Amino acid sequence: MPLAVQTENLNLTLDGKLILNDISVSVNEGETLVLMGKNGCGKTVFLKTLAGLFKPQRGSATVFGQNVHHLEHEELEELRRSMGYVFQKSGLFDSMHVWQNVVFALRRFSDLGVDALREKATECLNRAGLKNVEDKYPSELSGGMQKRAGIARAIAMDPKLLLFDDPTAGLDPVLTDAIADLIIEIKKNLGSTAIVVAHDFNLAYKLADKIGLIVSGVLHSVMTTEEFRRTTDPYVEQFREGRLVGPIPVIE
Length: 252
Ligand SMILES: Nc1ncnc2c1ncn2[C@@H]1O[C@H](COP(=O)(O)OP(=O)(O)O)[C@@H](O)[C@H]1O
Ligand SMILES: [Mg+2]
Known about the structure:
Blueprint: E1 3-14, E2 17-28, E3 32-36, H1 43-50, E4 58-63, E5 66-67, H2 73-80, E6 83-86, H3 98-102, H4 104-109, H5 114-127, H6 143-154, E7 161-165, H7 173-190, E8 193-197, H8 201-207, E9 210-215, E10 218-224, H9 225-230, H10 234-241
Parallel strand pairs: 3-8, 3-9, 6-7, 7-8
Antiparallel strand pairs: 1-2, 1-4, 4-5, 9-10
The structure holds adenosine-5'-diphosphate and magnesium ion.
Magnesium ion (MG) binds next to helix 1.
């Protein structure tokens, strides 16, 4: 299986603090890696580093064979077009209609006219389970619908790599399950690889081929879903069972 993503000894410091500590992980094409870990352990920073938004001090991040941090601006833009990023907070522009949000990047990178763009927006919104919301503003959507609109935007360029940052934050269990199904469906349709930051175990177990636990910027372990559910590794056990006492520090 060809590799979609590989990091080697990735080290990233922000404001003098080591945030990512020697992270080495690989994801095969078509696989789903779920990343879990306490608030503030470095999950979002890791995704942003893969997308080229942070530059590591040491180590490398390779996406589809290209070293993300060695690319010229244009090349990075090109690589980014193959990545769909669903931000933790939906990241939609309040002042734009939903359909304009969805095709925001596409408008920049294609020569499609307004009608074609709108059609594409409708198609992506429908794929994300939204109907008749094109002309609404994001603030007029419920939290769950905003998440779906964020997903619709992320798939507008048919990305080969999907990065989901806590796509079910703040959603109830039923909506969480619906988003899990949606991610599975989208992945299947696009044939893409996915890295999903998740806090919800049902979501993680449903989506993951493998699950990685980050503890204070260290990728403590990567296991198959089955292994993660059963392991007696003290870090994973503490996290899985939500115990205060154990090797994972309460405060990062
Ligand atoms: N732009 C930034 N500048 C400085 N520190 C940051 C920045 N973004 C995140 N951090 C710090 O990096 C650490 C990890 O944050 P983050 O990746 O957002 O955690 P989470 O696992 O909850 O997504 C935190 O200590 C956070 O304060
Ligand atoms: Mg985060």
